[in-house]
Specification:
By secondary structure, the protein is an alpha+beta fold. The chain contains 4 helices and 21 strands. Helix content is 37%, strand content 32%. The strands form 4 sheets. Strands 3-12-15-14-13-16 form a 6-stranded antiparallel β-barrel. A 4-stranded antiparallel sheet has the order 4-11-9-6, with no helix packed on it.
Length: 416
């Protein structure tokens, strides 16, 4: 028969209480440990682009896209109104200064040119006729003056003779006074006639000068009409390549309308558009390199546009070397401008979202490159492909340069 043992029941009760306490302690410890664990780091499946922090010389550059354009471009305007009759040369052709590109017609201008020519001939005839008439009048005036001068000399001589005879008593005093009075009268008339002759000569010159002025006006008008008539045959006036003819046969053009554009392909420059944020460091004279995708050409900054267009600034680069084969106007090129050389600085390849003088979060590689943790990095001056590291990284640190915005909610990632 079973014999009740009170001590055994008490031991079993103590053992159960002990197991319960131990279980509660274990559960509390596990819960606390789990609460202290960090969430699992996500895995980056795609390949990432990484870079290593270095110390040394960093070349600051700015880069932009652009085109090659001729330094010498000439637009040929219409001198007068006209109608396009023929287009003799098409864009792409090599032209000389006197090559006729197109021909215009203007019947009214042709009539005006003919009228100007006839008026010039009539004016020239009038000038010659006036010259003959005035010369004849001047000769008559000279003849009259010569006659008066002859009478004056004769009267003067007679007065001298009568004076001598009067002194010798061989003639009367009345006769002497009459001769003397006659001589004085002719002296006055001779002086007046000489003055009249001088005035007549000046009048002849004045009338001829007025007629010459009118003749010069007619000649200038005739020359203008002839130049306008010659301008109906449009010529470039410089050697080069015809780039554009923006008119068609039969089209009427007004004075000043552009008829053609000619450029000198031997002298090209690069027009590069630089981002507004970088263009503030551009200075005239900076060294540059232009990549035509078939070779590079050294150059220098020659002009910086003061205005901003669509967030970019236009920079002109003068080319200082021979052009690669295939270089032509409107060719797309890349331009790189050297800003400055920084010595003994920390730098790294430029991250996707790395802006100069900013603080960004970058993932730094740890555990042999298997994981990466986010660190705050202070960036300084930037270049095309590199950027200065002011703080947050050391020499030799490797950081992820790719776009990691998809993992902005995580401070730690695993790299696969």
């Amino acid at each position: 028969m079973d014999i009740p043992r009170p001590d055994q029941a008490r031991k079993r009760k103590i053992r159960r209480i002990t197991y319960g306490i131990v279980a509660l302690v274990l559960i509390a410890g596990v819960s606390y440990g789990l609460s202290r664990l960090q969430p699992a780091a996500p895995t980056v499946d795609s390949a990432v682009w990484t870079g290593t922090v270095k110390r040394g010389e960093m070349l600051r550059q700015m880069r932009g896209l652009g085109t090659l354009v001729p330094e010498e471009i000439r637009w040929i305007p219409a001198v007068t109104e006209g109608r396009v009759e023929r287009i003799l040369v098409r864009p792409g052709a090599v032209v000389a200064p006197d090559t006729v590109i197109l021909e215009l017609s203007n019947p009214e201008l042709e009539r005006e040119a003919l009228d100007a020519t006839l008026q010039l001939k009539a004016g020239d005839a009038d000038y010659k006729n006036l010259g003959v008439q005035l010369e004849s009048q001047l000769l008559n005036q000279r003849a009259a003056a010569a006659a008066i001068e002859a009478e004056f000399r004769q009267a003067k001589l007679q007065a001298e003779v009568d004076e001598q005879l009067f002194k010798e008593g061989l003639t009367s005093e009345l006769n002497y006074r009459r001769s003397k009075l006659r001589a004085e009268e002719l002296t006055t008339r001779n002086g007046l006639e000489q003055q009249r002759l001088a005035i007549a000569a000046e009048a002849v010159e004045a009338q001829l000068a007025a007629q010459r002025t009118r003749l010069d006006q007619l000649r200038a008008l005739g020359d203008l009409r002839q130049r306008q008539l010659g301008a109906l045959r449009v010529r470039p006036g410089m050697p080069g390549v015809l780039q554009l003819v923006p008119v068609e046969v039969g089209q009427r053009v007004a004075p000043g309308s552009n008829l053609a554009r000619v450029a000198n392909p031997a002298r090209l420059k690069a027009e590069i558009r630089i981002a507004e944020t970088q263009a503030k460091d551009a200075v005239i004279g900076q060294v540059a390199v232009v990549d035509t995708r078939n070779g590079t050409v050294p150059g220098r900054v020659m002009r910086i546009d003061p205005s901003v267009e669509q967030g970019t600034v236009l920079v002109d680069i003068a080319l200082e070397g021979p052009l690669p084969q295939g270089a032509r106007p409107d060719l797309s090129v890349d331009g790189t401008i050297e800003v400055e050389r920084l010595t003994d600085v920390l730098y790294v390849e430029r991250p996707v979202h790395g802006q100069p003088n900013s603080t960004v979060g970058l993932f730094k590689l740890i555990e042999g490159g298997r994981e990466a943790v986010r660190v705050r990095v202070q960036l300084g001056r930037s270049s095309v492909n590199t950027i200065e590291v002011v703080g947050g990284l050391q020499v030799g640190d490797q950081v992820v340069l790719s776009d990691m915005s998809a993992w902005d909610a995580f401070d730690r990632v695993r790299l696969r």
